[in-house]
Design brief:
The protein is mostly helical. The protein has 10 helices and 2 strands; from the N terminus they run ββαααααααααα. The chain has a single domain (4-175), classed as Hypothetical protein, domain 2 (Endonuclease III, domain 1, Orthogonal Bundle). It comes from Luteococcus japonicus LSP_Lj1.
Length: 199
Amino acid sequence: MGELVTGEDGRARPVWAAHDELMRHYYDTEWGMPVRDERGLFERLSLEAFQSGLSWATILRKRENFRAAFANFAPDAVAAFDDKDRERLLTDAGIVRNRRKIDATITNARATVALREQGGLVDFIWGFRPATTPAPRDYTEVPSQSPESVSLSKALKKAGFAHVGPTTMFALMEAVGIVDTHLMGSWRRGSSGVWPSGA
């Protein structure tokens, strides 16, 4: 994916966030920042599952459509979806119309609600934060999964979640600040407050 690109604002970003305005805004303001609320984490979990096999830019451009289609990712509302909702979603051109991923999102909403008896989705997922985070100088040093993402994947599946493979879970961990894979030298490195910039 290449190295860092310094923008006109003097900030160094990875190539994927350097040129497209939507991706740059996402990188600058959201990616890697801690998400510690149930709805927000359920949304990220759902969107990462939909992203599997596609580009993140595709998902980001459809994000507001996803929110409208899935009741703003309120777990209780999505957990109540029925066959009529499934058919509605399969005909919604504004989202990714993949039956397996749609079914997984409804399944995961129900599992999220059930998980409240064990402390909830946020504590569950953040419980897999590793002792250290990668310190990549380029994208060849960014892993696609980790021992923690493998363990998280297994634990979520055991708790009734679907479409939560270890690679998808590592992407989630990156997106919500559980690990910091901002490249060393990026202006966002260490900005989450979870990890120091040199970690």
